[in-house]
Model the fold of this input.
Amino acid sequence: MNTKKILIITYYWPPAGGPGVQRWLKFAKYLPEFGWEPIIFTPENPSYPLIDESLMKDVPENLEIIKTKIWEPYQLAEKLNKSNKKFKAGQFDVGNNQSWKSKLSIWVRGNFFIPDARVFWVNPSVKFLEQYLKTNKIDVVVTSGPPHSLHLIGLQLKQKFPDIKWIADFRDPWTEISYYKHLKLTNKSDKKHRKMESDVFKNADITLATSYTDAENFRKNGANAVCVTNGFDESDSSKTLKFSHSQTLQPSNSQTKFTLSYIGVLEQLRNPENLWNALNDLVKTNKDFAENFSLKFVGRIDDKILNSIENSSLKNHIDNLGYLSHDKAVDEMANSSMLLITNFPNESSKGIIPGKIFEYLATGKQIISFGPNEADVAKILDETNAGKHFNYQDSEAIKNFISEKFDLWKSGNLQENTGNIEQFSRRNLTKTLAQIL
Done:
């Protein structure tokens, strides 16, 4: 087999934490099995919102990694307003939670840094990679966004080297992402964003999407789009990920509490207030539930969300562990009774499939999901019989679903299911990617 070379341009790379780093880290791990040699191009001094040293173990030993310096304006933003630290992770205050400083910062971020604050890395990277590509044979260039400014690197390289295949990987949409409308863009800035996005769609040989709906939407906008979802790595904490070809696992109710866990970052735009209200009612009206229930958070939870929950009857049921390494987070998934996943509420977000759902699936735990109707997540849960999806208006149905699972847990009959999930293993997804390449 003749090995081909693939240059992966990514902002997120270990020791960066969070879901954004894992997609191409895992592809880079398995691509050599399918005849591709990955080469990573990433910033030397990035401003990551989260650090997870445990992901370093997945970096292949002989992987070529090229790093160049980047300048980012986040230190200036944080001087203006401490809450601007959220910007690095694509978060910010919304609605009544916005101070005048927050509003100003969001306006500056949306109109002065187009498409995002990593845009200052584009021209130096193009200059460096132009020379690199002249002296090194590369078959495919990949740009992964967000930050979508990295796609501008790919766009310029494609113009300079038209024979090189360019893959634009969209882990999240650009102008269709839910927070886009909160950026306070002027008409001129909005047009500039959309023009850049259109240029990427029309010039990339292939646009990768992480969901079925996103791929369809990208195609409508002129992209040659293909869906390759995120997934789970069966080698991650294999003792706790119950990846199996069997349809149903034996019940495992060793937890001392009926534990509903949320793993990851939870910001205001994805806050399931109807779930908190349902849990609050159950704690108030069901003594047995109140004595056995625990609400566990692993990751970064918005302070205002946490304060609101702590001011309810759920206060004494919260177990907030903060940010943990990926390995420990997977362990906490496995030590839960049910797992929570949330998406943005608007219909345009139905194509977003949060990456952690696949690791949720691998644990076999029941999943409760929130987002718009007819979401891609709902489709996955139905196909795998792994849980139920609700919208942000549901109320009584949520209480009934949780009560049903609690009763099963109490009687020792809450089953764990890992049926139909093999398609989402990182190795199988990389095989699909290699076929596309």
In short: The domain at 4-73+113-232+426-436 is CATH 3.40.50.2000 (Rossmann fold). Residues 309 and 315 are 6 Å apart (CA to CA). The mean pLDDT is 88. The chain is about 35% helix and 15% strand.
